[in-house]
User: Fold this.
Amino acid sequence: MSVLLSLLFGLLSFFIVMRKMAFLGAGIAHTAFGGVALGILLGIHPFFSSLVFCLLSAILIGKLVKYGNISYDIGIGILFSFAMALGALFIALKKEYTFDLSGYLFGNILGVTGFDLLLASVTLLLFVPFLTAFFQKILFMTFEEKVARVSGVKTDLLDTVLLVFLALIIVVSIKIVGIILVSALVVLPTSFGLLLSKDYRKVITGGIVYTLCIMIGGLLLSYYLDSPTGATMVVAGTSIYFLGMILQRMFR
Amino acid sequence: MDSNVVVSMSDVWVQYNHTVVLENINLTIREKEIVSIVGPNGAGKTTLLDTILGFKQPFRGEVRVLEKEPQKIQNSGLVGYLPQSSQHDRRFPVNVFDVVVMSVHAQKSFWGRLTANNKKRIREALEAVEMVDFKDHHFGSLSGGQQQRVLIARALAMQPRILILDEPSTGLDAVAQDAFYHLLQNLRDKEGLTIIMVSHDIGAVSSVVDQIACLNRKIHFHGKPKDCIPSEALEKVFGKNIHFLVHDEHCETCERRPW
Assistant:
């Protein structure tokens, strides 16, 4: 599972960070909470309800920004607190359910089922071919959108597909890392990769290796310390990142 | 239509947020010309380019680029574009070669690989802008002038017929500007490109271009820079109280010439 998620986040992180969509990633993760709660209320598997919820929110944010004439961060800010509040209401409505809130918020490696593993694998099997097929086009569009469009890149379509994958990858990883902390995994791999190199190939590879280290390391550490998995991973990951930053400055 | 007309705009009106930004634009650009569109800030220059590029549609009139509607040729790679000055993230982890390759890949279907021909073309594009030696350099660490050259190489790698530049000399010092304009002349002569350039600087471009169009919502003058631009036209475009400094390749000192 860690390997799958490292690959997914290592790749996804590059485009989210370079397209400056990190806050959107955090927003979608929080929105997922509403979706999970809705699923539990309606008796649907939380994965499907949160995926639909996240996708609808992402589309809604896009529309709000375009037609409501507000900026992205306002749109995201409004929607994600709304979704979290809805989630809290949905849970309150389902009075007889013992809901593992902490597990969804902070991750619970023991709660990972075969089905979760299957979902992660399917996501990877969809994401990797998509990315390799369109990598250069997405790179171009990330670097300079207007010129990419004039040169023949279908920017709107690719943007939408990337957004769908963002929602999918976040929802798939909520069980293991938790909602609060998934947003860290969207940002940290590439941030670390950029400390290592100015070549995008090395940035992505570095990001994948780094994510793998913090996931496995974080997992082992959380086992010994009996601490929540997601939190341990993110603390470890962020500490390594800051250390890397300090070392980079020292050896510049 | 005259076969060597590459861009034609007839009675084009464009609005933006319910305000008319371009009014009754009539413009004909022929192949292998360097045309400069000058005007003050807010004149509608970028909107004009956006209309030629197919990003904006006029509510009246007709635009044809290479005899087609602008949106229809967007995917063709026939139009190279350099938007207004660099808003690139300096940290973006690409080198010069990576940047130039982008436009070639944009033309390919998915999983397309670079052919030997592609690689040859990329090399030629970098040679045309004299940036071959920099191909492994990180793009963000280049100077403004060098980045401009690389972006031109990227456009050239597509083998376009038209090159559209929006304020290309912003951020370039006088020496770099001079070198840049010579490069444009070379591209016109050796590659047969038609170059459409937007600028707010009438003095600097007039020695290099074949045609000037003075724009401020309308086109107030369109002709060769050597023709005396009527002072009424200049007033309508730039307003009163303007003095022009005229430079050409022979001038050793700046000469202030009242229009």
Chain A has a mean pLDDT of 85. Chain A has one domain: 2-250. Chain A touches chain B through 25 residues (CB under 8 Å).
